[in-house]
Amino acid sequence: MPPVDLRSTPRLSIILIMLNEAASIRARLEALQPLRDQGAELIVVDGGSEDDSAHLAEPLADQLLVTSAGRAHQLNQGAAQARAGLLMFLHADTTLPGNAPQLVEQALSRHHWGRFDVHIEGHSPWLAVIARMINLRSRLSGIATGDQAMFMRHDGWKQVGGFPEQPLMEDIEMSRRLKRLSAPICLKARVTTDGRRWEHEGVFATIWLMWRLRWRYWRGISPAQLAREYRNVR
Q: Locate the Glycosyltransferase 2-like domain: which residues (predicted)?
């Protein structure tokens, strides 16, 4: 891992979480290298991968952290080590636009937090429809998903207590917390996320599963119970 230059403070800390992503993580991180040249810090948080993910990621990151698995826990561990005043949280299967640092800086000069529109990459024509629905729902509700590359001020992350360390729906609950500070800024620029999960498990089956889980979450079913059901279905 390259040594951290303590003399310079990065403009933006990108926190990427992963678990057993050896097949694709090198290409994902190589795509982020130009953002490091623009002054972004790249922190990779591995959730205890059993493959070569950490070994492949280490030379392409400013910091590599290895921790226990769990999206919220990994996100919080990365944020706790971030040196920038602005944070962006990224899943390993999501690709950013090349001008993401500038867009985030501009957005967070006026807002506490926000997210990008999402494009779902895949073969099914329904994925474009689903992406439009996700983006519209997010605009109307002020709720962001992890696939939309949420970003926020570092002090805002601290103020709301970070991501709730629950096994599912951590992005929804974090959005609720951040809405106490302000409404999100919803950028029309798009991040791209891999649609293989949607296609492998069936587009409509996945829609039904996610809406059912969300509905039950809003009705107060515990995230632990929903996570068990999610794993069983998958």
A: 13-109
